PH domain-containing protein
Amino acid sequence: MPPWLSVTILVVLGAALLLGMARGWRRLQRGASPVPAPPAVPDEDALGAARTEEVPATYVSTTRAGDWLDRVGAHGLGVRSAATVQVRDAGVVLRRRGAPDVFVPRAALRAVGMSGGMAGKVVGGEGLVVLTWVPAPAEDPRGLDTGLRLRHPRQGEELRAATQELIGSTPAASGSEESS
């Protein structure tokens, strides 16, 4: 086979692969059913007192509650990024680099737990902190799971305890273990 034909075949296959990946990402962003946009992060005064320090983490992804493979791509929720997470009186603030910040209001939080993985990251054991929340109960009562891989795992217990205190005692979502 002449070299020009081999190169042409490889270029066509590479272009088809890239086109398929782009179509898949667009389909992920549209999703099977619409996901309401998370609320904007309020100003510092409206957030209330800090219950934890800002903890460095990796925002892994957001999935449908209970289905760790059903990644949500809408509103930038499927974009993995470096982040800091902080529990405040008004809710949990996730400040992300290179992606929109995420604010989980206190009223939307349902549970906090640990998991060994979710779409985009499998760590084994109980390496991810998972927040279960419902952005708009009337539109999507099932809710969402947001996974965070903390840079310093020992801070996970403090984060989980502060979040659990914020929401009170609630049952954990299926697939996650509630902190106590």
